[in-house]
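Format notes (please read before filing issues)

Several people have asked whether sequences and C-alpha cells are stored in separate files. They are not. Every record keeps both together, in the order shown below: the sequence lines, then the C-alpha cell lines. Line labels are part of the format and must not be stripped during preprocessing.
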Amino acid sequence: MIHIKKYNKRQNKPYSIKKENTTMEMTKLQALPDLLSPEQVADYLAMSTEYVYRSIKRGTIKARKLGNKWRIPKIEVIRITSLPD
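Then the structure lines:
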C-alpha cells in the first residue's frame, strides 16, 4: 500500500490517498502506447466510449485530433487515474 500526498486547494490542507496494487496499475500503464484512441481509454478506464467522447468535448479529457481521429496522450490517462475519488 502506498500513501500519496496531495494538496486540496479548496480546503487549503494536505491529504493522502491510499493506493493498493499500484505496481500492477503502473505495469498496465507502461504497456499502453503513448497516444491512445478514445476506445482504448474507455476500455482501460472501464467506461463507455460515448462518455470519453463527451469528456473530450467538455474539455475534462485533453485530446488532440490527428487527421479525423481523436488521440489522447498516456499522461492524460495517468492524470485521470490519479484524481481523488
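For reference, the curators noted about this record: The longest strand covers residues 2-8. Residues 2-81 form one domain.
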